[in-house]
Write a structure and sequence with these properties.
Radius of gyration: 20 Å
CATH architecture of the largest domain: 3-Layer(aba) Sandwich
CATH superfamily of the largest domain: HUPs
Distance between the termini: 29 Å
Number of helices: 10
Number of domains: 2
Length: about 280
Amino acid sequence: MLRCVTRFAPSPTGYLHLGHAHSALDGWRRARAGGGRFLLRLEDIDPGRCRREYAVGIEEDLRWLGLDWDGPVRVQSEHLAEYRAALDSLAARGLLYPCFCTRQEIARDIAASLSAPHGPDGPLYPGTCRGLSEPERARRIATGEAHALRLDIARAVACVPAGLSFHEEGEGRVACQPQRFGDVVLARKDAPASYHLCVTHDDALQGVTLVTRGADLKPATDLHRLLQVLMDWPEPAYAHHPLLLDASGRRLAKRDRAATLRDLRASGVSPAEARAMAGFG
């Protein structure tokens, strides 16, 4: 019988709050209940927002909650060559193209469109750089012009069998529509790879069999399944849990300065009380 392998994969861009605690406890309990493995991964690809003190704090907070993990912590910034190899593989198949547009230019082009399509993350990239010729791309890259790498979603979808789907706990097979994301960025101008590529790569590499994460990330599974099929990576099962909300009904978030586990600890809250507040009493 295949043992369950789960993971908790926060970005060290702030200290953990109760929403993170809920996600970590969910994955940890599922793995431990079946004698499986629980992994900790730090998704620190964004050099502008990730900080060492937050990475240290994540491990401290998890230990305080009573959680342990199997094997060393995987730190994504230590494995950039692996993500580059995956990008090179996609590029060799003609599925990536360089995008030189700035955010302002993209916003301008979207505003000029009479019917800009929208995806789960907002207005879709209008494809401004998709039609550039190879000589033009090469010339601009040679001059050092900053660029991102986008997935040509139409070409990518054409490369996989019809009927793409994933298994969601409690729902069964769920149909995927990755094209609704448009030509997503897989490598940013200021970061060597994007969340979508790194998380999918690492789940495959680490043998994750069950992805447990917040319901806000469920739409992204469509895109992740596309990458899994394109790269011949194994398919995990998925279990997206409801998000914890604050007293006003908003989901807990770092940007809203939700009370951190460090704050709770400093105020005298015990680990058992914190687990109960996170929905795992």
